[in-house]
Amino acid sequence: MFERFTGEARAVVQGAVEHAEADQAPRVEPAQLLLALLDREASRCSFALAALGLDAGRKESVRRALADTRRRAGLSRADSDALAGLGIDVSEIVARVEEAHGVGAMSGECRPGRGRRPFTKDAKDVLARALRVAVSHGDRHISDEHLLLALTAGPGVPAEILRDHGVTHKAVTRVLYGGGAQAQAG
């Protein structure tokens, strides 16, 4: 599949690996793919994000939301709400764990190691979904905009955080494939 990735998409994948290394994460997750997409400049992905109002300040808000989720061991807001319905306060658990073991103890950090970091099943699903998105739009190659569309189309924390910032699958599709600035309504 990687032979179908453009240089831009390959740069996103490499950027995700670099974010995982910087985070000392044992594996590359969809959140790191999103972080790498936020780093993009002068690409169709960066154009779509800018058209949807995701400027530098709002990108920083996305980064903070991802970091906050990581502190909660990757639990989405929906996960936290479901646990709250069972009487489990995730914030309280995080506070207690961090009090005993230090800030970030639930983030899944590992000791920096050598070798390549594998992609989680969820991250691989994003890459496979990007291929399906590209094909559905008649594109022969996967580029960074297909990765963005794949993240917004899937379940999980990146889609939830992007949605909170006005970046939905429908809106990105309209910006990239028709409708331009009116996509903000979706």
From TrEMBL:
<feature type="domain" description="Clp R">
    <location>
        <begin position="2"/>
        <end position="186"/>
    </location>
</feature>
<dbReference type="InterPro" id="IPR036628">
    <property type="entry name" value="Clp_N_dom_sf"/>
</dbReference>
<dbReference type="InterPro" id="IPR004176">
    <property type="entry name" value="Clp_R_N"/>
</dbReference>
<dbReference type="Pfam" id="PF02861">
    <property type="entry name" value="Clp_N"/>
</dbReference>
<keyword id="KW-0677">Repeat</keyword>
<protein>
    <submittedName>
        <fullName>Peptidase</fullName>
    </submittedName>
</protein>
